[in-house]
Amino acid sequence: MAALDSLSLFTGLGLSEQKARETLKNTALSAQLREAATQAQQTLGSTIDKATGTLLYGLASRLRDTRRLSFLVSYIASKKIHTEPQLSAALEYVRSHPLDPIDTVDFEQECGVGVIVTPEQIEEAVEAAINRHRPQLLVERYHFNMGLLMGEARAVLKWADGKMIKNEVDMQVLHLLGPKLEADLEKKPKVAKARLEETNRRTVKDVMENGENYKTPGYVVTPHTMNLLKQHLEITGGQVRTRFPPEPNGILHIGHAKAINFNFGYAKANNGICFLRFDDTNPEKEEAKFFSAICDMVAWLGYTPYKVTYASDYFDQLYAWAVELIRRGLAYVCHQRVEELKGHNTLPSPWRDRPTEESLLLFEAMRKGKFSEGEATLRMKLVMEDGKMDPVAYRVKYIPHHRTGDKWCIYPTYDYTHCLCDSIEHITHSLCTKEFQARRSSYFWLCNALDIYCPVQWEYGRLNLHYAVVSKRKILQLVATGAVRDWDDPRLFTLTALRRRGFPPEAINSFCARVGVTVAQTTMEPHLLEACVRDVLNDTAPRAMAVLESLRVIITNFPAAKSLDIQVPNFPADETKGFHQVPFAPIVFIERTDFKEEPEPGFKRLAWGQPVGLRHTGYVIELQHVVKGPSGSVESLEVTCRRADAGEKPKAFIHWVSQPLMCEVRLYERLFQHKNPEDPTEVPGGFLGDLNLASLHVVEAALVDCSVALAKPFDKFQFERLGYFSVDPDSHQGKLVFNRTVTLKEDPGKM
To answer: Does the keyword tRNA processing apply (predicted)?
Structure first.
């Protein structure tokens, strides 16, 4: 009954039933939300409007200091806090003011309590922003970044309603520019390469100058900081140093491509260096194939690391620093079980204040294998930004390491290892994705606790794609269930899969450049990546002709006694790039869809009384006879031909093959049906229930012209009128296999 009551309470706040059930699975969150709702009902009565319910849910899910729950609920219930910006400001205020009592006057001022923003103020702020950018707006019209106008208005009116600002911007822009013209609907020209370099160079100034770490917001300055920075500059010579630090327990995906581009590109743009450092601290999940695959993908994207390093290179030094932490009273050996350490509201360790000498002896015993797995950990004495207390630095694992063998049975954690390896390698800019922001405090704390050089951690938003999953665990599920073949199945968005599908590395780099680097997480549509692929392949993939569903055509008056050799340009728009030769014989094959006995209006290809041209031959064919089989299906056509310049120009020219090679063609579409297959509100049955059963169509007996006979795996072609295709590694001497990379034009149904 309690669960049913809570479910009813949560849906009464405006949560969907699915969201409410998910919330009930989280014991701590559901208890806090239940308490918040109950307290709000004391003021508002049993009915709570959806806007207030949304704020209460945001409060319950984000508040770490439960002592402040009643205080903040009272402000929400009384409508003094009634917007998301106010709630965010309130949560930040109580986080940064942990001591009692709270200065309510200062709190209300910082949270915009009582501030009323009138429509007239919004109108004035938007008008001022538009006037500042009027010349550029009149030139770029609707290609102008309207978000800039909204951002400037919000900067002036911090507590204004975002929807009201957007509506005002839309109205005033429409008044200034009038309705959209045809030119306004065209895509804005792309400037990917320039933007990448501009982004990388701009980021240097945004983060800091090398050697000026202490100027970075949140950076902790100690009495040793300036001397350590001086020593750092002497070692690096002021050189920018970044690193790409993957875990070798899976294959890189499209999100990693952004990280690779940012870390390597940032260093390159500033004449610096970038390390490739494997975070090999968990031997349980690491495999040799992942190390080599990661190196291959970094090289494939066009980057060469200054040096390939491993966290395990520094295991001895990391252990010595752990001992030093214990000596300084900043770490201790704990015996709480793994399940007791999960979550944020964990019980304080009863061993937190054990004597230093005791922890030193126990840590040595951990190293010598005197504890079972899970029986002892080394924990650091700090509270992280997300409220997690005393993160684990070392744990026991009786698993041989791929590089150190059986030397160690204790392994450091990411929270402990990452910043220390950055310090050892004198990294100047530790660039990582937004989810690591909660670890920034431990990053600074640990370096300063040991009095060693402290780099700066800078976070940026992850790159995700719709219609995709990139989680290692979920890809393993897809492989295990047979939904995909392996990590490199071309329907996935791992880098090995994209390479197999035929995506050029230049296109992936261009896509990352267009996305840019922002703090907000970015979720992009796959067709934007495909557009980058087309841009590259249009200039690099030579043309060939292939027929997927063939129809035999016999030319009864073929103009020669034997086949003719036809010269076909590799790139019709630029014949200086050469030609290839294909045979033209009395028997050719065309696409079955290029012929219709009874064509519908608008059909321009081969039909009775409607001739078509054969591309590149200079000949036009005209239907004379249709040969049908016993079932009535069309088996072949008999046609006559004439020179294209000997009569009226046909309505269409179609591709064809003669004396072709048989090949296999794999046509791919999206693997998932919904944009967000991992979102339970969109796909209640889970991502495995959202599979598109038509995501792969294999044409086993396609025909291709003989110009591709010597093609090797990963060679790319444009099959005229069909799309871009890449040779699959499954190809063998007897038969080529092609993967369709992308269609010639954007198709919203394709991946």
So the answer is: no
Helices (H), ranges, 141-253: 146-156, 162-177, 192-207, 225-236
As given in the structure block, the two tokens for residue 92 are 């930040």
Q: Averaged over 523-548, what is the pLDDT?
A: 95
Tell me the catalytic residues: 247, 462, 472
Q: pLDDT tens for residues 547-602?
A: 999 999 999 999 999 999 999 999 998 999 999 999 999 999 999 999 999 999 99
Q: Which two tokens stand for residue 165?
A: 């600002």
- Whether 32 and 63 have beta carbons less than 8 Å apart is answered as yes
- Among 559, 663, 666, 541, smallest CA distance to 617 is for 559
- Give the Cα separation of 698 and 32 in Å (integer): 53
- Please, are residues 475 and 678 in contact by the beta-carbon 8 Å criterion? no
The pLDDT assigned to 160 comes to 84
Count of CB atoms within 10 A of residue 734's CB?
6
CATH number for the domain formed by residue range(s) 119-180: 1.10.10.2420
Fold match, 119-180 / 546-655: no
pTM above 0.85, yes or no: no
Tell me, what amino acid is at 202?
R
Structural domain 663-743, CATH architecture? Beta Barrel (2.40)
Distance (Å, rounded) from C-alpha 250 to C-alpha 293?
9
Say yes or no: domain 546-655 is CATH 2.40.240.10: yes
Would you place residue 344 in the very low, low, confident or very high pLDDT band (cuts 50, 70, 90)? low
* H-helix or E-strand spanning residue 89: helix 84-96
* Segment among 314-318, 391-395, 434-438, 621-625 with least mean pLDDT: 434-438
Contact 334, 349 (CB under 8 A): yes
Tell me which CATH homologous superfamily contains domain 472-538. Glutamyl-trna Synthetase; Domain 2 (1.10.1160.10)
Which residue reads 């699959």 in tokens? 728
The class level of CATH for 6-111 reads mainly alpha
Which DSSP string corresponds to 574-632? -GGG-EEEEEE-SEEEEEGGGB-SSPPTT--SBBTTB-EEETTTTEEEEEEEEEE-TTS
